[in-house]
Automatic annotation (TrEMBL):
It is an enzyme of class 6 (ligase). The lineage of its organism: Bacteria, Pseudomonadati, Pseudomonadota, Alphaproteobacteria, Hyphomicrobiales. The keyword Ligase applies. Belongs to the carboxylate-amine ligase family. Glutamate--cysteine ligase type 2 subfamily. Belongs to the glutamate--cysteine ligase type 2 family. EgtA subfamily. It comes from the Bacteria. This is Glutamate--cysteine ligase. It catalyses: L-cysteine + L-glutamate + ATP = gamma-L-glutamyl-L-cysteine + ADP + phosphate + H(+). Pathway: Sulfur metabolism; glutathione biosynthesis; glutathione from L-cysteine and L-glutamate: step 1/2. GO terms for molecular function: ATP binding; glutamate-cysteine ligase activity. Catalyzes the synthesis of gamma-glutamylcysteine (gamma-GC). GO terms for biological process: glutathione biosynthetic process. Its EC number is 6.3.2.2. Coiled coil: none annotated. It comes from Devosia subaequoris.
């Protein structure tokens, strides 16, 4: 949640860059699960996107939730752009097209994640109902073009929108039309981080396939099961992708810092204002040669802000962010965290997942990233299809959750949250394929039907 210009020490050496990530390490008994999700917003009377201002706008929604919860607003200039729950470190923020994001609190188990999501949706829908604001659980808004969606008043988005128009081909679609669900997980140290990052990068296309839920855009069948993922493939090659260097011998925090230093910057925050430095080099900033701030050296906060503008399939900060999944219904939101928790938070499962992917080449991983958005689980792979790998991965995750043995009040363990994935493995159809069946069948091409059926 940018917007504050908090005091931060100057970076004095390369070691500071590494330490900014390394200090996230913690013992296993302190590992937590963080879940973030973005919801498209829309009005029904008539069917249209939601603007920021106005009696039925996003600002009114934020102000209503503030009154309901007591959470504290944060601002860009004089305009509220989100809410913080200072007690448990959760919060609400706005994506460029008004996608309404919950940054969930770090939870000890998936039962806490599910309860948090349920309460968030209860409060949000209660406030939204009289505003005729509704929420859509899809990876891409299905009918509106980028220029039909109102931009939220966040200074960083104005900078990014201009830059996205100059790099890639679908960067503004990523900003304004896409929505994701993300799982954030901890590591115990550098070796643990490296293994988890390698496993999760390799398996990210599997998650993309299992959670594929964006077959429509611009009012039509796009030919992709996860058009959101295809959008990311055409956004900005310098800050996205599968990071093949992660699989090279000797990879660690320092190598990731070197990569991040070479990713072009977007902005620097000074006096609570965003300075446009899009395309400039953090290496130059590190050396005091940033043209917009001549002679000035970066702070740790500047580095952390920069790390937040890098968008690979898995992002390293003080934790690992799984970024490959489309937004879906509530069950799929928690299922994503269940999938990755089961794979990465149990030593046996982590080793099993590594054995599943350790022999894949850079070409294998790139083949999956390229083909999965279109073909999903039917992507040809290793003399079969990705379906077989996905089924094994779900099984490994389930076994990991069984071994974790975190029980709710009913005595149920966390495997209950894998139910959506078990249904996908059983049926062989991901959510996008189920929507396509309806679109080409009972809906008779009327895509407005999805706003009712995919409403959260």
């Amino acid at each position: 949640m940018a917007g504050a210009d908090t005091p931060s020490p100057l970076i004095s050496s390369r070691a500071d860059l590494i330490e900014a990530m390394e200090r996230g390490a913690k013992p296993a008994d302190q590992w937590r699960v963080g879940t973030e999700h973005e919801k498209h917003v829309f009005h029904t009377n008539p069917l249209r996107p939601v603007a920021y201002e106005g009696e039925q706008g996003i600002r009114a929604l934020l102000e209503g939730i503030e009154k309901e919860t007591g959470w504290h607003p944060f601002y860009d200039g004089d305009l509220p752009i989100g809410l913080r729950n200072d007690e448990i470190a959760g919060g609400i923020s706005l994506e460029p097209g008004g996608q309404f994001e919950l940054s969930g609190s770090p939870m000890a188990d998936l039962h806490g994640t599910a309860a948090e999501l349920s309460e968030h949706m209860r409060v949000t829908k209660k406030v939204a109902e009289p505003l005729d604001i509704h929420f859509l659980g899809l990876g891409v808004t299905p009918i509106w073009a980028v220029d039909e969606i109102a931009s939220m008043p966040k200074s960083r988005y104005a900078i990014m929108t201009k830059y996205m128009g100059e790099t890639g081909t679908l960067g503004t679609s990523m900003m304004y039309r896409s929505a994701t669900v993300q799982t954030n997980l901890d590591f115990s140290g550098e070796a643990d981080m490296v293994k988890k990052l390698r496993v999760s990068l390799a398996l990210q296309p599997v998650a993309t396939a299992l959670f594929a839920n964006s077959p429509f855009a611009g009012g039509r069948d796009t030919g992709y099961l996860s058009f959101r993922s295809e959008i990311w493939r055409n956004t900005d090659d310098e800050r996205t992708g599968m990071l093949p260097f992660v699989f090279e011998p000797g990879f660690g925090f320092e190598r990731y810092a070197d990569y991040a230093l070479d990713v072009p910057m977007y902005f620097v925050i000074r006096d609570k204002k965003y300075i446009n430095v899009a395309g400039e080099s953090f290496r130059d900033f590190f050396d005091g040669r940033l043209p917009q701030l001549p002679g000035e050296k970066p702070t740790i906060k500047d580095w952390e802000d920069h790390l937040s503008t890098i968008f690979p399939e898995v992002r390293l900060k003080q934790f690992l962010e799984m970024r490959g999944a489309d937004m879906g219904d509530e069950a799929h939101v928690v299922a994503l965290s269940a999938f990755w928790t089961g794979l990465l938070y149990d030593d046996i499962s982590l080793e099993g997942a590594w054995e599943l992917v350790r022999n894949w080449s850079d070409d294998d991983r790139e083949h999956l990233r390229r083909e999965v958005p279109r073909l999903g689980l039917d992507t040809p792979f290793d003399r079969s299809s990705l379906f077989d790998v996905a089924a094994q991965a779900v099984g490994i995750a389930e076994a990991g959750l069984v071994r974790r043995n975190r029980l709710n009040a009913k005595g149920q363990d966390e495997t209950i949250y894998l139910a959506p994935l078990e249904e996908t493995v059983r049926s062989g159809k991901v959510p996008a394929q189920r929507w396509l069946d309806k679109f080409h069948g009972e809906w008779k091409g009327d895509l407005t039907r999805i706003f009712k059926e995919a409403e959260l």
